[in-house]
Automatic annotation (TrEMBL):
Keyword Transmembrane helix: yes
Residues in Alkylated DNA repair protein AlkB homologue 8 N-terminal domain copies: 72-110
Keywords (A to Z) from UniProt: Membrane, Transmembrane, Transmembrane helix
Database matches in Pfam families: ALKBH8_N
Region described as Disordered: spans on this chain: 1-24
Protein name (record): Alkylated DNA repair protein AlkB homologue 8 N-terminal domain-containing protein
Biased amino acid composition, Basic and acidic residues: 11-21
Entry's Gene Ontology molecular function annotations: 2-oxoglutarate-dependent dioxygenase activity; methyltransferase activity
Transmembrane segments: 105-126
Biased composition range(s): Polar residues: 1-10
């Protein structure tokens, strides 16, 4: 199944995606509307060969469930379901008197990798109730393992700051120039880009900059 993603644009701008679709149709012929789906962040329709493309509320892309409001509830449901099945096996291992060290290794490699997959992408924009669901699941796993495990907020914070530092140190990264222009000339902090929408404020870049600045001593 193919996907067509509609991006939010200003009202006075004509969306160029129809022209792009026509170009793609010639490059990757045939482009079947019946096997394509579209999820959008604003109202509008896409036509391929004179047929409307079905609009879907969510779409799975690179292992992450994206919804048209970027609220991540659909992704949280999928993550929670997978993690619950892993928790079952973690409990089974404990029933066989497996040592705490091995249980912790199993959690990190099998369960935590599921819960925190692409957390840099959705960690800052997740709803509070969804974050609580995952934190309760992590707490249950901690009781099985027999030690305290890092919660969602801690993992997301560390990974976001680490990812931002990686971008800053890698000139070939697509976001390197964007972040480099935000460096303050008076301190080692980053300037916060202006934004008007809460959805953008909770995106990776702005959230990572806030966390990065909070980790720096004020001057």
């Amino acid at each position: 199944m193919s996907s067509v993603t509609g991006l939010s644009m200003k009202q006075h701008q004509d969306p160029p995606k129809k022209e792009n679709l026509e170009q793609q149709q010639h490059l990757y012929h045939p482009h079947h509307p019946s096997t394509s789906s579209e999820y959008i962040f604003q109202e509008g329709k896409v036509c391929i060969s004179g047929k409307d493309v079905e609009i879907v509320p969510s779409y799975r892309f690179l292992g992450v469930q994206l919804d048209n409001k970027l609220e991540w509830s659909t992704n949280t449901d999928a993550v929670y379901k997978k993690a619950m099945s892993r928790l079952y096996f973690l409990r089974r291992l404990r029933s066989f008197s497996v040592c705490s060290r091995m249980l912790h290794m199993f959690y990190q490699s099998v369960m935590a990798s599921t819960i925190f997959f692409a957390a840099v992408c959705w960690g800052a924009g997740i709803k509070a109730k969804d974050a609580n669901r995952l934190n309760k699941l992590i707490k249950k796993a901690g009781s099985v393992v027999g030690c305290r495990l890092d919660n969602l907020d801690e993992v997301v914070r560390d990974r976001m700051v680490l990812k931002l530092r990686t971008i800053m140190d890698n000139p070939s990264h697509p976001l390197h120039n964007t972040v480099d222009k935000l460096r303050s000339s008076f301190s080692n902090r980053l300037l916060q880009p202006r934004c008007s929408k809460e959805r953008y404020r909770k995106s990776f870049l702005l959230s990572a900059i806030r966390l990065y600045n909070s980790s720096k001593p004020s001057q």
